[in-house]
Amino acid sequence: MGLKAETREKLRSVSTATVSTALYKRGFRIQMIQGVQPLSPDQPTMVGEAFTLRYMPAREDLNKLDVFRDHGHPQRKAIEECPPGMVLVMDSRKDARAASAGAILVTRLMKRGAAGVVTDGGFRDSAEIARLGFPAYHQRPSAPTNLTLHQAIDINVPIGCGDAPVFPGDVVLGDSDGALVIPAHLADEIADEAVEMTAYEDFVTERVQGGRGIFGLYPPTDPQSLQDFATWRKKSGR
Amino acid sequence: MGLKAETREKLRSVSTATVSTALYKRGFRIQMIQGVQPLSPDQPTMVGEAFTLRYMPAREDLNKLDVFRDHGHPQRKAIEECPPGMVLVMDSRKDARAASAGAILVTRLMKRGAAGVVTDGGFRDSAEIARLGFPAYHQRPSAPTNLTLHQAIDINVPIGCGDAPVFPGDVVLGDSDGALVIPAHLADEIADEAVEMTAYEDFVTERVQGGRGIFGLYPPTDPQSLQDFATWRKKSGR
Amino acid sequence: MGLKAETREKLRSVSTATVSTALYKRGFRIQMIQGVQPLSPDQPTMVGEAFTLRYMPAREDLNKLDVFRDHGHPQRKAIEECPPGMVLVMDSRKDARAASAGAILVTRLMKRGAAGVVTDGGFRDSAEIARLGFPAYHQRPSAPTNLTLHQAIDINVPIGCGDAPVFPGDVVLGDSDGALVIPAHLADEIADEAVEMTAYEDFVTERVQGGRGIFGLYPPTDPQSLQDFATWRKKSGR
Amino acid sequence: MGLKAETREKLRSVSTATVSTALYKRGFRIQMIQGVQPLSPDQPTMVGEAFTLRYMPAREDLNKLDVFRDHGHPQRKAIEECPPGMVLVMDSRKDARAASAGAILVTRLMKRGAAGVVTDGGFRDSAEIARLGFPAYHQRPSAPTNLTLHQAIDINVPIGCGDAPVFPGDVVLGDSDGALVIPAHLADEIADEAVEMTAYEDFVTERVQGGRGIFGLYPPTDPQSLQDFATWRKKSGR
Amino acid sequence: MGLKAETREKLRSVSTATVSTALYKRGFRIQMIQGVQPLSPDQPTMVGEAFTLRYMPAREDLNKLDVFRDHGHPQRKAIEECPPGMVLVMDSRKDARAASAGAILVTRLMKRGAAGVVTDGGFRDSAEIARLGFPAYHQRPSAPTNLTLHQAIDINVPIGCGDAPVFPGDVVLGDSDGALVIPAHLADEIADEAVEMTAYEDFVTERVQGGRGIFGLYPPTDPQSLQDFATWRKKSGR
Amino acid sequence: MGLKAETREKLRSVSTATVSTALYKRGFRIQMIQGVQPLSPDQPTMVGEAFTLRYMPAREDLNKLDVFRDHGHPQRKAIEECPPGMVLVMDSRKDARAASAGAILVTRLMKRGAAGVVTDGGFRDSAEIARLGFPAYHQRPSAPTNLTLHQAIDINVPIGCGDAPVFPGDVVLGDSDGALVIPAHLADEIADEAVEMTAYEDFVTERVQGGRGIFGLYPPTDPQSLQDFATWRKKSGR
Q1: Which residues of B touch A61 (CB under 8 A)?
Q2: Angle at the Cα of C230 (from C227 to C234), degrees rounded to 5?
């Protein structure tokens, strides 16, 4: 069980755009985490199963600075418990007026082997996080401590993130277009199909760069296109 | 334990405006459920403890119409389990593009003795609900079935509703200005204080209607104001 | 061709909520015109085929007051050409900062026999329109002339209205929850199904008002529910 | 100087829609106070010169409850100083998450002879204000005390309200479509023109109710329309 | 007819800021395409006439993946028909939750000689597009296929894009501040004036960098400023 | 009086994230200027006292291009009067549809020795400003002249900027996460505390980079953490 190593590898080689289309073919329209962007243009592609953290609005009497002294505080617990290879996905109710986390926690997460971190709110110390080379996605930088707005309340329950449904164990893929969620039971077949689609898209891109028009080629309504593709695959070893 | 009958009675006689101020004095700034309104201008004041329902974004494959055949479906379960005297509060992520519930479920809730219902989304069959004489609050009417957008996922967990924190057992008060949440442990003292404040505000209103200015009266910086108030209380029996 | 009289009658007897569910069963999720409300709580149910008007942002040099002297001006033309029994649906790009139309034009539309009017912007003279007893839907009142913001550009082309797709000839249904769009080719079967659903919902409402719980009844997973319904239909003649 | 009695009377007889068009003819596009509505559908038309109050975000240490003990507090001062016949217009930065004022202050304002009150935020005790029969405009009801969000900082300075520019002394007109601002130096000529326009619009409405089409009539490109209007004016004494 | 080569050259040397001011002098206030940004900070200035594509909300039954097999599909047609030297401007109703197009189509557009592409939605494969060195403007990256949200419906009709009016043939100018639309009949005179204004602004910038204050210089109310400018032009050959 | 040189130096060495937490400890929750970002990732940290400019909506007749010929125009005056070492903070009502200022004015401000500039709207010539190496913060680039939307009305009054309260003389700190406002009377103690906090955070970061977990370390509930920190300070000279 869990995300297979080869599925992870396949997904690392495809784009969120391609996977979105594969999901759409199966009737999924809202798996994109809307409104989030990578902290750095140079961060690697992110692939991993979702480990979730749910925030609720922070009631003033329950969110004094000393709450972090409690080892059971869900935000800190999530950082220390997110399994290696997984992506910590935070439901911050799309509110970036206070931070979902900062550089120290994200660094710790990286050191523990997590595959990435996503919030539909914002991170503080954003420039420092951007330099880590660790896949991180948010709406925008946000300096205020989460206590002013967000109370961590639940770990690893189903959540919404950027209007997408996220169940623990779903597979999260992130690239420069953003991040999306693949239902766990579809990860393998989506990965397979996306690898195939990517090969064809790369072939198309090469042709279009060479001056070819899109009719008959994209999609391949002209049978010649598929023959050319077959030849191309052989030649390029894909 | 639970909401005392006399506290309930006291809260029924005060306004969300007055209670908001009493909460503000204790450092609470975000207890108002933002952006909701009563479905009918004539519905009675709502008082009751919060029983909560959490929605997440509805994944297409998990939200076919037949999900309602399952008696364990959290939305239907919440309707049949919300204890009499309590208010069902729904976290619909402030998204009113699909309904949080409709007239049949709200009628059932009323029949079961609930004290009211609140969503930060919208209700369908809104005119029918408005005619029930049952306290109901939402953002705006919304006809589409919840399945298009909202998947009920959790019952009686802490939630956000209209950006307010809601813990099960908190006391929800609703009037024509909207609805707010009183932390459970403060309900009694807030109720007492709000009754006192209301008496003074009624006295002030009477004086202002009679032509008196607000300086010295509201707040009572002129000692005479408090003497006049004492006389007024005696006379009016409050 | 066109909307059959009996389909029109059937739709007049059902709600947007019920029809939304029938559409959802067929895979339609975005047919509700989001964010519009009736101008009057007392206006009759609206049913009619869509006749559309498309607005674009108003360039200053092309929208002087004298443009209305041109009989070919699309806004005025739409008012004089919308066929009786049809609903004029306006794409105002969800922008209510200026009016989509006012009482004189809406009165004319009514006099010409139209079935209603919808804009995802706002109407001016809103109180006067509300008194007409004519089905009208908008986002909110808006006094400024459309020329400040909206240039009428196209008549009877496919448009978006409140994020719903509207093709000329689609059937528009409006009640107190708002307005929605039924694809033309589905109007008959949706009307039939909605009438059946409404009968069952009315039966359920009666039972729930009488104290019955929803499990087994709504949906009718208990076979007894369907038997009771059959009896009820006979008795109530539905 | 100031608003002439006859100009006030004329404006009382015309609509914000008509005045918006008169302003548009003179190049004014943003005088409508966007997003505000009357608290009661039955409140009288509002006409008066603007007396302004500016709010800024409320810093916590400067907005304890005892600030109202200070007679110089700008909110309370504005209430006691707004001259009779004027409209108190509040710049609440379009933020209705806390109240701009409540029933006691609005009652006092009414008693002092003010012509109305407008905020681009919200009022608390909204149902009570609605019953006063006093022209009041806001975005939506809002129970929390202004101290949680709004600090009154300036009286009678130029402000923005609902994205409209408001200079002290400008004339504010409100009806069921909302409220707008007439630059002070144009009040007389706008009033004159709007009265004329209203006569013509009433004539047109009567004709359209009688079955007449709009081409040639609205606007009167057919000379017969103006002759008919002349006859109508004589007959109806307008 | 069409955009003159020398006007194109002139516009390439001026900024959207300068042209905005020239438009404002002629009464144009809304020609800026609001809310769009270049995909790459390094892409060249964009100048070309508008060729438009209009999207409407995508009805589910009309937007299966196989629609792209139709050579007449307006999105694909627009890509293959946009004339060289023109800018493809897409009305995506300011909704970036799904892509307006992706790298393959944008590459094809570039290869066909188009001058640039603008959407008020988002592009997928955004990093790949950014590397093309082709002027492209959008709101934000967006991976989901357009079919989930946008149905291409019309080619080369007047549209709104980012709240700006765009008529086919209008001239679109884009730089790092964004993109704007010059009404076709004004392109030549705006280009001339903007070149002159740019010369003066460059002169001013040099002076201000040298320590000069702005009074008398910007605008040149001090006659000496214009004399100095004359000298500077001679010296710098502008 | 005024900002002490050593406080300025201390603040230059700390982050907005750290200062936000120090403010939160004292009850300040809204001092972050929400929704603004640096124009360049490379611009230096910004520290200086606030000098303010207030914009209101621009009435058309008062905002012709020739208003800038008036040396008393508040925008131009603010640029020429903002004292060296101070930050010009503009209240643009969070509206970035027109520019708050452009490169010439910002260059002049820099030349006059200002410490930075902030608007909650947008700047035109944004790429040019970004190259100045001068701390500048806005919402997004915006080419249209301020006259289309913003009328400068007041200099150095208390304002709101990005929903934060800004009083003249408050200390503004900006880094890559954005900009915030320190109440003037707290600048010294906040600076001291933030320097201490930063030392501890740097120590924590080093440990976490070395593999240490956060429990007991952040916050230092394990006494050993404080001992290790003491050692680290000695060694690192902090």
Answers
A1: 27-28, 183
A2: 145
